[in-house]
Amino acid sequence: MDAAAAHVLVFPWPRQGHINPMLHLAAALVDAGVRVTFLHTDHTLRRLARAPPPPPPRPMRVLSVPDGLPYCFLDLMASICDTSRPAYRALLLSSLLSSGAPVTCVVADGTMPFAVQAAEELGVPALAFAAHSACSYLALLCTPRLDELGETAFPADDPVRGVPGMEGFLRRRDLPRELHCAEQGGSDPMVLKVAEAIARSCKAARVLLLNTAASMERPALAHVASRAATDVFAVGPLHAASSSRSAASSNTSLWQEDEGCMAWLDGQGDRSVVYVSLGSLAVITHGQFTEFLAGLAATGHAFLWVLRPDLVRPASPGLLLREAVAAAAGGGDRARVVEWAPQRDVLRHRAVGCFLTHAGWNSTLECAAEGVPMVCWPFFADQQTNSRFVGAVWGWT
Ligand code: UDX
After folding, report:
1. Least packed by Cβ within 10 Å: which of 7, 120, 136, 355?
2. pLDDT at 233
3. Does domain 260-394 have CATH number 3.30.70.660?
4. Which atom of ligand 1 has the smallest separation from the CA of 16?
């Protein structure tokens, strides 16, 4: 099929770290002349609508399906399955029946097995997309095996044998935190269920796309391909394509970016600033905040810290946290706090000499592309495995 006749529906898991790479993929398709519909959930679209609108003309059609969520949510997976699935199926069906340009292909986030399945049931070819590194995706696919071997019980230093190609290298503490279920001496059955569903969805898809580079992850990609029993393509790092017109005119930030920090960076010396961001989902306690802040201040370096309004729990007024940072940094201009940063511009700035990161995959790729050394504080999901590879394989520390 030629590009002009194709119509691709791109459907990300509604989280910042999944929306960003899939938007870059969608933008690359638009730039290649392909018609694209980008599908959000209602909750995400409401949040995006609070930011300034992107400049017209809109390069791709943006739609949303209900997610059953009010403004805050508890169990995203269950809610999306119950609410988004029927709406998504109906949307696909109406596109197929319309006299306009029907959807000819779906690229759905592999975190939503139903999105691949429903498209294939309706005769629309579906590709699964993974916003993760191949090494962490492989660990995820091996979850049942790890559980069988009893290698998920405690986040210890013991090497694991259940992930092919990483035997003796990966330690239990390099596996996702949610796999460790000490009370039950194994994995949480819910986590196992989710891992199995994701593995099923990538097997059901015709192709699995990973936002990674073959030059970085060839061995892990080969193992993913043999486990997934489908064609696997490394299409990343996708953010590297986002200088394109289509990506530049698409807004994806769920928080308002604070551009003021760029002027602050301009006033700092070369490679003198520690940039700190724990991504879009991690949450820390007040105890962690206080201890971490003391450590940061003790380095003597200037730092720029992304303190999302929902980073510290229980919630504290942002003003109090900012005052604590200013006091720990000794007043003056040594510390800057923002709720959300223009991260890629920050990492590109000459003043940034270190990135203290949660090792989310987008942050890891964006940082590696700019050649900024990383210090990792991983929280969950793929972050532990990414962090192990950053330190011991890729050597970006
Ligand atoms: C989540 C998981 O944590 C991550 O491990 C997984 O790979 C993807 O989903 P998240 O916590 O959002 O991701 O981290 P990350 O993958 O690093 O994505 C965050 C994105 O937000 C990056 O593209 C980053 O540039 C952007 N960001 C972050 C900003 O634009 N500004 C900020 O202040 C912080």
Report:
1. 120
2. 96
3. no
4. 12
Specify the residue with its C-alpha closest to ligand 1, atom 34. Answer: 279
Mutating to test ligand 1, I would choose from 77, 136, 363, 370 the residue with most ligand atoms within 8 A of its C-beta, which is 363
Catalytic residues: 18, 109
- What pLDDT does residue 229 have? 81
> What is the residue extent of each domain of the chain?
3-135+190-247, 260-394
- Cα of 150 from ligand 1 centre, angstroms: 31
pTM to 2 decimals?
0.92
Mode of pairing for the β-strands spanning 207-210 and 273-277: unpaired
Q: What is the ipTM of this complex?
A: 0.98
- Evaluate whether 3-135+190-247 and 260-394 have a shared fold: yes
Ligand 1 center–CA 282 separation, angstroms: 10
> Does residue 305's CB lie within 6 angstroms of at least one atom of ligand 1?
no
To the question of domain 3-135+190-247 being in CATH 3.40.50.2000, the answer is yes
